[in-house]
Amino acid sequence: MSTLSTVDESAPPTTPATPVGDDFGGRSGGRAFRDQLARVVMWTAFVVALIPLVWILGATIVKGGQIIASVDWWSLSQSGITARREGGGAVHAIQGTLIQAAVTALISVPIGVLTAVYLVEYGRGRLAKVVSFMVDILTGIPSIVAGLFIYALWVTTLGFQRIGFAVCLALTMLMIPTVVRSTEEMLKLVPNELREASYALGVPKWKTIMKIVIPTSFSGIVTGVLLGLARVMGETAPLIILGPYTAVIATNLFDGLMPTLPTMIYQNYSENLQPAIDRTWGAALTLILIIFVLNIAGRFIGRFSKVKS
User: What residue spans carry the region label Disordered (predicted)?
Assistant: First the structure.
């Protein structure tokens, strides 16, 4: 007697499995197309933004490279050199630029870093909101407004002379917000686990900040400081208002005029004579090289000062 197998007619019919690629093939193709389109747009925008940068840099190197190749450019000033006469150097302007940048950084970096530490580690309530709002206001201030403000305070109100230190005060107003925002973002990237581990060991908060938080984000802080320096070293309006150009070497921030590379560029370009125009290109290329060297130094410092895992 044979046994017959029965089939459960109440069970739902089974359907063959559909390959994943067949069900999502259309949408995968659409996503791939949008991905390629976004990639093309991104690279196109990058190339479009790169063209003027390469153009300006190439023109500056071609027109200013020959003049800065001279030894006199790095050893002499423009003392006794008229606009129609070739020769002279830019050592007076280079010294003035570096001195003003150093003093500006000496004032701005402690204030900017401490402000960022307060906003990230301690800032709560209305005071922190006011400080953050004021930093945002300083970020959007044009350089000429900062120069006019210091002029009204330093010269008009207090009755002091136009000197290099007044220029540093105006540049400080421009550098502080850059340092604050860049340092603030770097401090926020430090994992909270590092802070909590330090607190668990009984380390005070201020020592945790000094020994853990700031060293961990040091390379980013250095980058922010260099960005701020790159901005203020190229500013011209505050220097014209508060520290007009002089062709001789002057290193005293509290005595008379102060030569810098931006004001040297402005002064020589306004002469509209070929020897002066050549010095304009040379001063512009010199300023680019100084900022480039500062960035390389910052990269070097940041790489060798990182906290190792």
Answer: 1-26
Distance from C-alpha of 115 to C-alpha of 120, rounded to nearest angstrom: 9
Tokens of 260: 């810098």
User: Which of these, 5, 77, 132, 23, lies nearest to 248 by C-alpha position?
Assistant: 77
With b meaning 16 or more CB within 10 Å and e meaning fewer, what string describes 98-119? bbbbebbbebbbeebbebbbeb
Is the pTM here over 0.85, yes or no? no
Rounded distance, CA 276 to CA 24, Å? 68
For the chain, what is the largest distance between any 2 Cα atoms, rounded to a whole number of angstroms?
Answer: 127
Tokens 């931006």 locate to: 262
Q: How many CA atoms lie within 13 A of 240 on its CB side?
A: 14
Cα atoms in the 13 Å half-sphere on the side-chain side of 292: 7
| Ranges assigned E (strand) in 102-168 | none
Digits of tens for pLDDT over the chain (309 positions)?
Answer: 444 444 455 555 555 555 544 444 445 678 888 889 999 999 999 999 999 989 999 999 999 988 998 888 998 888 888 777 888 889 999 999 999 999 999 999 999 999 999 999 888 888 989 999 999 998 888 999 999 999 999 999 998 889 889 999 999 999 999 999 989 988 988 888 988 898 888 889 889 999 889 888 888 888 888 888 888 888 888 999 998 888 888 888 888 788 999 999 998 888 888 888 989 999 999 999 998 888 888 777 767 655 544
**How many residues comprise the chain?**
309
